[in-house]
């Protein structure tokens, strides 16, 4: 399966994001966001000509953006076939959760004394709850991703933020294969709220325990669903 001119036509709306100084990094940012949104699903071949035309960038710039996203494990280059959105193995999903547990729990454990700057985290929780009431399950998924990004953002570390951005973008490749955001994310809305309230109360150790259990349960649920689909796909 490969992208066509008509399928990538929507990318033309992203041209203003490139500004006057178009760079491979900015192109990579656009494509990363589109992959995370499921615009380019796992297994799809990215057509250079169609995407380059839609974004108005040179082939060299686009290839450099592809290289950057391949390094981030979002794309894979297959000799004589082209560049494809990566399909994760089950082991990849397991490893992503191991990384998340290490990073997220360490951030919360290292917060120091309260009070903590929780406005952005609270906004992500509220956004997920609003989306759930509207039965907007993809909105719930997006809000949940924002919750974990904001949780790691409490560390105030640009390097940790960058690491988490890549980990969560890669994780969404698995979410798009399962494609059941209600099942994957709705049960965790109340747990997001519990973690937020624990941090508001200054209960850092309790928040770490809640978060660790949350990630372990989420990993088991996703791996079980994902493994069945990957096996079926083989």
Structural commentary:
The structure is a single chain. Helices cover 66% and strands 4% of the residues. By secondary structure, the chain is mostly helical. A 3-stranded antiparallel sheet has the order 1-3-2. α5 runs antiparallel to α9 (189-200). The longest helix is centred in the last third of the chain and has 30 residues, at 204-233. It is globular, with a radius of gyration of 19 Å. The relative contact order is 0.12.
Physical arrangement of strands within the biggest beta sheet: 1-3-2
User: Structural class of the secondary structure composition?
Assistant: mainly alpha
Unreliably modeled segments: none
- The radius of gyration over CA amounts to 19 Å
- The number of E-state strands comes to 3
N-to-C SSE string, H for helix and E for strand: HEHHEEHHHHHHH
Percent helix range = 55-70%
How far apart the termini lie comes to: 16 Å
Give the overall silhouette.
globular
Main sheet makeup = 3 strands, antiparallel
- Count of helices? 10
Query: Strand content of the residues, in percent?
Result: under 5%
Mean pLDDT: 90
What attributes characterize this protein structure?
234 residues, mainly alpha, 3 strands, 10 helices, 4% strand
Write the topology of this structure.
Layout: H1 24-37, E1 45-46, H2 48-55, H3 59-71, E2 75-78, E3 82-85, H4 90-109, H5 119-133, H6 137-153, H7 158-178, H8 181-185, H9 189-200, H10 204-233
Antiparallel strand pairs: 1-3, 2-3
